[in-house]
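Exercise: predict the fold of this chain.
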Amino acid sequence: MAEKRSQVKDIDRSIYDFRYDEEGFYKVDEGLTEDIVKQISKEKNDPEWMTEFRLKSLEIYNKLEVPEWGPDISGLNMNDIVTYVRPNTNMKAKWEDVPEDIKNTFDRLGIPDAEKNSLAGVGAQYDSELVYHNVKEEVLRQGVVYTDMESALRDYEELVRSHFMKLVPPSDHKFAALHGAVWSGGSFVYVPAGVKVEIPLQSYFRLNAPGAGQFEHTLIIVEEGADLHFIEGCSAPKYNVANLHAGCVELFVGKNARLRYSTIENWSKNMYNLNTKRAICEEGASMEWVSGSFGSHVSYLYPTTILKGDDSHMQFNGITFAGKGQNLDTGAKVIQIGKNTSTVIDTKSISKDGGISTYRSSVTVNKDAKNAKASVSCASLMLDDISRSDTVPAMDIRTDDCDIGHEAKIGRISDEAIFYLMSRGISESEAKAMIVSGFADPVAKELPLEYAVEMNNLINLEMEGAIG
């Protein structure tokens, strides 16, 4: 007979919750002022146009209102946030040259192992700056550029200038404007026409400092007929003060090109995750998203795809897990402009211990998007009667010549399924974890092996706190 538990075990997040002190680190003052923005720009040796861009973004930030339609973020006070923290090291190309405390952080997260086994290139960001970057020689020989945003701004200035915050302008929303003012770090990738990168590139972002913000910018340009898989991972230790993540991802997918963008966001539960991701696809292009959202106190996250070119395609597979004290508002958006464009959105959300999970989708089909197709499916699983799961779909269809479908399911774990597994000698907690892992499997199998393992580990960590 399965053992009955009388207590709820705390979740052991020690693999993510360790932290190091910041002796020797440089940081700006808390808050957001013109002087602080100028100070960040000076520290980063920005060209004049970027300094002006930052200051203009700050102006826009001060004029825009905080969104009121989503989860409450009144606990986030920008006067308490440090917008720039520089570790006590310059970026290294050799792992052994990275300072020991930072190296230990990424060693414990498995980044060097992942690089050795299956990645073409790795960038590792610690607080506001990249501290390590390495790309395999065969990828460089293909003409692929994979570097940090600061180096790209110096070495590929015109390419950056013609793309930077063109998909996500600072006027888009208040936290896009904030990002434009204080962005730091992130990745720049350029894949030349016809080049197929056989193994993935990866960036990993680690926020170590309490009360800090991380504002990395990822800019990827995949030219005509090229193919790339880019993986992003994020984590942070837990503190008793609010941390902020307001990164920005801009993806440009050329004619007949393919880009797969996989991410596992595992922020700590004091994090406000206000991230913006957007892609634009030219004729015949394919954009694939694989997204896992864990951790964070509050999330606003809706990766957006603009299917500009005829015959372009978007696929989104995502999973969100909201536990105690979490309000995760996530989903996907697509704007179909070209003819014969197609969209497949398949999402899963799990909530427990009073967690709130909201799936929010938006499908817009323009009047000239003849023969457009879109299929949206969202399934929600609640593990108790105090959690909440909502689905908020929006569809703006401006042509009759299209095929659009939406399906939503919300349910709870079946008592019969639990009983069946327990009758086979499996404990109640293990039975619940097995069912949840099975529910998440369609997303897990879209991830590379080591990230599927990490996602399943995260689910098991979350499930350890389930009442048995």
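Check your answer against the key: The chain is about 25% helix and 35% strand.
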